[in-house]
Amino acid sequence: MAKKNELIQSVKGTRDLLPSETPLWQRVEEEARKVFEAYNFREIRTPVLEQTALFARSVGSDTDIVTKEMYTFEDRDSESLTLRPEATASVVRAYIEHGLYNQGGIQKLYYFGPMFRRERPQKGRYRQFYQIGAEVLGSEHPAIDAEVLEMLVLLLERLGLKEFKLLLNSVGCSKCRPEYLKTLRKALDEVKDRLCTDCRRRSHTNPLRVLDCKIEADQPIIEKLPTILEHLCPECRQHFDSVTLDLKQRRVDFEIVPRLVRGLDYYTRTTFEITSGLLGAQNALLGGGRYDGLSEMLGGPPAPGFGFAIGQDRLVLTLETTGTLKLAQPLAVYIAWLGDAAREPSLLLARQLRRQGIGVEISYHQIKLKKAMGAASKLQAPYTLIIGEDEVASGSYQVKNMQTGEQTSVSAGEIAGFLKEKLREPLQAGEDPAEQP
Ligand code: HAM
Questions:
Q1: Disulfide-capable partner of 13 in 121, 211, 299, 338 (CB 3.0 to 4.6 Å)?
Q2: Of 138, 107, 140, whose CA–CA distance to 40 is shortest?
Q3: Where does residue 60 fall: left (phi above 0), alpha (psi -120 to 50 degrees), or beta otherwise?
Q4: Distance 47 CA to ligand 1 centre (A)
């Protein structure tokens, strides 16, 4: 515990997002909302705290997340609670708890929010991080997988991202995976002595994770191991072929990576990740897949599901490097008033503009013209209005463009319209009016 008077700092692996950073975070959220709603997704908000059993049962009791990374504590009434490490389990819990399956058809849900995993912090990896995710519940149709992937690619393109790759695999189902695992275990028995310590352990506890090993020396051995894609049952094979065909028809580029496995146990059939070369070691921008048995595992009715979660911290990091996104500047105009008689009309003008959603900063006390200009540039206000007694008398105001220095005389009643016209949102990065069907 910090001693008295000692500076208290944020917890390791957590961070403050300062006003210089939040516009990009907001922009990503706005764009995600727009794209998701265009695909008929609705927002769901679930609690950050859940019963520990929820994640043990869904994410899997042998996974790194559950064994090493969860923030779990005993509540005052001895109930074991966990700060959610991910939200798919929570969304499925809510779907069952509120009987959303009774509404008929499929549910398309999206969410934003913080997740908690006690990992070793480094660039792009935090203990409190943020996800933007979506889940479709109630159908195993392969067109859902393809539609969601199309939506994801559209979102990344809308954000101006170009360098990313969609990696695709199928991890089979409860019918074909056990058979494959037997084959994999047998193959691993023969080579495991030549693999790293982690892989030797995993070959017993969670053999699929061996495929995900990043140790250079292990790669030639792992490359020769049997892949699940070669062992899919006819139904899973057909599902995978339909997804890939559909993606081609939708003009969504992808790469099949038979070694792609995910760190959560609930996946069946399609799994995927989108990686970005701009991210370095933590290159997974997002991940997801299908989880057809999860609802039953949590005591619910059969409700096949498909979804993803974007690592928002990583997405923002990538967008900072590309820097193509135009961010809205909330402040439109700085108003400085000179002389007592100018104060009241200036306050009224500021109020009128703010009521119309125009961002205004107004000097609290009277300042000289030169100082007013300095204050306006410090605030990075695109426009400045200097209101003196003469302007009040004539009803005509000089609106100064701070970038070009150009001054325009505008009457009081027309200032709002003038500013709105000038500050209309610029064309967004990635927006392509001439998109081909
Ligand atoms: P996940 O792969 O564990 O999947 O996490 C998704 C994304 O969250 C990762 O690709 C990464 O960008 C980000 N992420 C994970 N851990 C951290 C961390 N410590 N710091 C920063 N970013 C991180 C899931 O969570 C599944 N619930 C996704 C899903 C939804 N599958 C189906 N539906």
A1: 121
A2: 107
A3: left
A4: 17
